[in-house]
C-alpha cells in the first residue's frame, strides 16, 4: 500500500521544518544569553 | 473572593462544561471516541498537546520558581524542540501507518503481546497515581489560600471535567483544551500587565527587569560550572536542559499515551507533525513568559513589602499557636527591612535611569544585602512553621496566587482562579481519555470476546468514568496521607518513564532484539530501578550508590537497551547451539 503524498507547508521537505525548529532554538538561546548578560 | 469573582469563576467553569458537551457529538465507536475519527487539524493538535502538558501546577509553580530561583528553570525545556524533531522522524509516521489506538499497540506488532501488556500496565499505574496528585496539588494550594474545604475543592478540580470527558471523549477533550488555553493565556497576559501597572509611579517594565537582573533573577542561561568544575548536582543549566530535557521530552511525548493520544487524533502525518513541531517552537517562549511574570512579581515586592510567607494558611497556623509572639517579632523585623528595601529600590531605579553607574552599583549591593536579610527572616519563620503546623513551609507555589488574591481587582481575581481549574482540567481530561484508551484497547479487548462498536463505545465511556472517580479518590486519599506525598508521587514518574522509553528505543533502533529479550530486560531493569529508589530512602544495600530520582530515567532507558541487546545475544547463541546439536 502506498502512502498519500504529503503537502508540506512552507518547505519542500520536512528537513526544512526540522532545521527551522533547531535554528529557532539556537536563536532563543542566543537571545537569552544576551538578556542574561545585559540585565546581570 | 467577592461576588464578582465567584460569578466569573462559575460562569467560566460552567461555560467550559457546556462547550465540552456541545462538542461531544462523535461516532459511537472506538475510533470516534478515542481518536476523534483522526480528523483534527494541526492547530487543535498543537493546543491539545500544550494543554495536556501544562497542568495547574505549571501556572502556579513557574512564577514562584522564578521568584525564588530566577529564570534558569526555562533551560529545562531546551531539549524539547530536539525531541519533537526525533518524534516526527521516527514515532509519528510509524504510529500513523500502523493506525494504532495506543502507543503500546505498536509494541505487540513489533515484539509480542506480553511486552505490550507490561508497558501499558506501567503507564496505567504511573499515570493514574500522578493524575490523582495533579488534582490534589492545586486543590491544596487553593484551599490553603482561600480557606476552602479540600474535600470539595478536589471534587471540583477533578470531578466536573468527567462530565464532558465521558460524554465526548477525545473530541470534547481537544475542543475544550483549545478554549481553555486561549482563556489561560489571555488571563496570564492580563496578570503580567497588572504587575507592571501596579509598580510605583515612574517605575516601568524595564526598571523592574533591571532590579530582577541585579538581584540574580534574570539568570536565564547558566552553565553549571562552579570554580572551574561542572556541578553535577546543579539541576537547571544549559547542559542538563538540552541533554536531560531531551530524554524526558522524548519519553513523555513519544511513549506516554496521554500525549500520543493527542497527535493520533490528527487527520494525517502532516497535521501531527505540524502540531508537534510548532509545540517545539512555542513552548520555550511560553515558559519564558510565565517565568517572567515571577520576576516581575519579585520586583513588585521590592517596592511593596510582601507577607512573611505567601502561604497564608501557614501564617494563620503559627499565629494561633504558642509561637504567636515569635511570629509578631519576626513580622516587625520583616516590615522594617521591607521599608528599607522600598527606599533602596526606588533610588536604584532612579540611578539606572540617570546613568549613575557608581551609585547604581552601590545601591544594587545594598538591595542585595537587604534581600539576604529578608530571606533570613523568612527562614526563621519557616522554622517556626515546621514546629507549629503540618503544612508545607516552602511557599514557592503560593507566590503567584497570593499576589492575585491581594492585589488584583475583583473579576480578574476570579478569572485567574478559574484558569487554575481550567489548566488542571485540560491535563486531567487528556489523562482520563488516555487511561481509558489503554485499558480498553490494551486489556479489555484482549481478554473479552468480540463486541459491537456500540458496546465498545459504551464500555469506553464507563472506563473513562471509572478512572475519573479513581483519580479523585487518589486525591482525597492523598489528603489523608499529608503533603510530603506530593513529592513522593512526583518521583513516581521517574520510576517508570525510563523503562518505558527503553522498550521503545529497543523497538525502534535495535531491530535484532525480539519480544522475549525486550520483556525480560524491562522486568529486570524495572525491579532494579525500584530497588535503587528504595535503597536511597532506607539504605538496604550499602554496595548500591545513592542516586537522585532524576537519574533513574536515564538508567532505566539505557539499562533496558543494554540488557535487551545482551539477552538477545545470549538467546541467539543458545538457539544457534541447539540448531548445531540437532
TrEMBL record, chain A:
The chain crosses the membrane at residues 16-35. Keywords: Membrane, Transmembrane, Transmembrane helix. This is Uncharacterized protein. It comes from Cnuella takakiae. The lineage of its organism: Bacteria, Pseudomonadati, Bacteroidota, Chitinophagia, Chitinophagales.
From TrEMBL, chain B:
Signal peptide: none annotated. Pfam families: SSF. It is a multi-pass membrane protein. Keywords: Cell membrane, Ion transport, Membrane, Sodium, Sodium transport, Transmembrane, Transmembrane helix, Transport. GO terms for biological process: sodium ion transport. It is found in: Cell membrane. This is Transporter, SSS family.
